[in-house]
Design goal:
The chain has 139 residues and is an alpha+beta fold. It has helices at residues 15-29, 34-54, 88-91, 110-117, and strands spanning 4-10, 63-71, 74-81, 120-126, 129-137. The protein has a 5-stranded antiparallel β-sheet with strand order 1-2-3-5-4, covered by helices on one side. InterPro entries: Anti-sigma-factor_SerPK, HATPase_C_sf, HATPase_dom.
Length: 139
């Protein structure tokens, strides 16, 4: 069993397709439930889209590192980028879940979905790097 996937992505939304394929292959190779692949791909899509869309202001190429690892009874992920400092779990405004759908502002549900989908989430800043941790209990 190859219990770890490490990838380096460019700060380009087109990279999400390559990541999703690699995650699906990792899930299948490790005989994990396909729903886990869906959950992690959903979270990766949300978090990386936010990083690419809002985290870089210089218009130059950057790298986003992604690690997915089966460890003990968890599937864990780590996302590392050198974008602007931003804790998605503390700094993102809470979504409006009470207004009619036509009255809500566009966006704002992504981080909420990540927190609802994962069993654990965490953020830390090390030097010029954002590090986001995600975990889902297996079984």
């Amino acid at each position: 069993m190859t219990n770890r996937l490490d990838m380096v992505l460019r700060n380009d939304l087109a990279e999400l397709e390559r990541l999703a394929a690699a995650v699906d292959e990792f899930i299948e190779r490790n005989d994990l439930p396909p729903a886990l692949g869906f959950s992690f791909n959903l979270c990766f899509d949300e978090l990386i889209t936010n990083t690419v869309s809002y985290g870089y202001h210089d218009g130059t190429p950057h790298e986003i590192r992604v690690r997915l690892e089966a460890a003990g009874n968890e599937l864990r992920a780590e996302l590392v980028d050198d974008g602007a400092a931003f804790d998605p779990f503390a700094d993102a405004p809470p979504p409006d879940l009470t207004s009619d759908i036509d009255e809500r502002r566009v966006g704002g549900l992504g981080v909420f979905l990540v927190k609802q989908t994962m069993d654990r989430t965490a953020y830390r800043r090390e030097g010029d790097r954002n590090i986001v941790l995600l975990a889902k209990t297996l079984g």
